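In this supplementary section we document a worked example of the pipeline. Step one takes a protein sequence of length 108 as its only input; no multiple sequence alignment statistics are reported here. Step two produces a three-dimensional model, which step three serialises into structure tokens for compact storage. The input and output of this example are shown verbatim.
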Amino acid sequence: MAGSTAQGLYDNLMLDLMPSPAQMTDFGIDMATDRDALMRAYQRGIRNGTITVEMLSEAVCDGAKLSKLVGMKVETAWDDLFIDQITLCIVQDGEPEIYDDDEDDDEQ
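The serialised model returned by step three reads:
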């Protein structure tokens, strides 16, 4: 799925077409203060060969990776979501415990 949005963004910007809503979300264009500047940064990198489809696929939905790729601040709607889904491992007395916030639900 990510590969198809990366390929789609690449193709659209290479052809000077507007990205789809999914592409705009996955690559942070929808959240940019200056959408045109961010699209130009992607387009410039794509057209001069410094941004490839593979690079876009690697960085899709990751604001920090996308920021490095285009050389300007990028935030995506997915940035906070991925952090919230991480399973936390808490080490107490040298033994790791897996934190599961749904644990209380199972006991009822």
